[in-house]
Amino acid sequence: MFAALTDRFSEAFRRLSGRGTITETNVREVMEEVRTALLEADVHQEVVNTLCEEILQDALGTAVIRSLKPAAEMIGIVHKRLVEVMGAPSPGISLVEPGPTVVMMCGLQGSGKTTTCGKLAAYLRKRGQSVLVCAADLQRPAAVEQLRIVVESVAQDGTGSGRVAFHGEPDKCAEHGRATGAAVGVCQRALRRARDERFDVLIIDTAGRLHIDEPLMGELAAIDRAVEPHQILLVVDAMSGQDAVASASSFHARLAVDGVILTKFDSDTRGGAALSVRRITGAPIKFVGVGERSTALEEFHPERIAGRILGMGDVVSLAEKAHEAVDEAEAARMAEKMAQGKLSLDDLVSQMRMLRKLGPIKQLLGMLPGVGSALKGLEFDETQLDRLQGIVHSMTPSERTNVSSLDKSRIRRVAAGSGVPTADVTKLTRQFESMQKLGMQLGGMGALGRAGAMREMARSGPGGLSSKGSSRTESIKAKFKKRR
Length: 484
Ligand code: GDP
Known about the structure:
The protein is α/β, with parallel strands linked by helices. The protein has 23 helices and 8 strands. A hairpin with a 7-residue loop joins strand 7 and strand 8 (297-299). The longest helix is centred in the last third of the chain and has 22 residues, at 422-443. It is flat. The two termini are 28 Å apart. The protein binds guanosine-5'-diphosphate. Guanosine-5'-diphosphate binds at residues 107, 109-115, 208, 263-264, 266-267, 289-292, 296.
């Protein structure tokens, strides 16, 4: 996301750095590049025009021309205006007391609405809310079934204290074609159930179509009148660029949408929708979908997104992700074990599992300042953890705690058991041993010494199996692990 825009912006700003004096013409030239970059990113024409005019006025009216650091000054102005164009932050869901808070989800077919209902249920559950998800898309029996599977997997696998349950009436699908009120009836019964069973939130997944048409809008309006949702959220696919913005406008005109969820934000989209939706529709973006898993939903914070666009990274979101995924008591226990040289290979695997819960490595690294563009074209092999786990599982429990007991014949056995070359097993054991030694040294060191040792550790890394790119990935994993 935004990679091309980030590149174009940094090229444009580079024109301003290292110059003695900056003229108005220089600023106008840079603004032309900014304009082209925004248009290429598929930002709505109207938004581009106003945004560029605002930036230009700010730049000419303030200190960019006189500044000793015109590039930095310009980046500051662009950042401020990008934040404004995305609107005041409005992340998350406001809950009503007494519940249930009713959230109606709408969007075109394929936008990611069903997946997002599951993600939202997981998000709320993690925050201690109990959630009932209602299947009100009766056009396709398969849609009811798909939602049931999604919701039940969140109910079984999700973390958090809240309950998650599914309300579906697949037998009503046949009625749908004949009676217009079938979907309304399902929603009303789901609301009654949510009240009776004391759910905090009711999420209603409404019908999706390939295009906006009158029957769809009529049905949504009827549901809106019948259940009076507290929030109507529109799911739009960030990949569809201007179409996403156009469909958001049409939905908003008819339904007064409270917020937008932009899905597929992880894909290689140009980013235009994120920058256009608020100004064109007036509705704030509340969340972004960043993957297919039920945990891949992030609150939308304009400040942080503007930072990502300008290559400043988004360390705050990264830290939040880490906080959510990492069990702190477990991390402290591991650190203690490591300092005593008692870390086992099982511990290493469980640490890496924890890290992986944060999301794909490339996505995480892209949140570090300046790292995003450096990663362009680099592929990370996310299957490394499975290979590592395969090797560890082929060892006996005592071998996993006492790695030095792995002599040549044991290494051959483990390699055969896990289907990897013996060199991979040897490399893993050696690196794990040196990691253990370093861990013990760190345990007895002051902060400065610890920093130096950590750098060393990052260089050597605990994995580095034979596949391409692995040592880099693993050394980064080691860094993260040690920082906790
Ligand atoms: P619906 O027809 O609107 O209910 O769409 P679905 O929920 O079935 O999603 C359509 C496709 O988009 C599925 O393959 C989803 O896995 C995928 N999808 C949904 N949200 C995201 C996202 O945030 N990122 C990515 N990469 N894929 C997504």
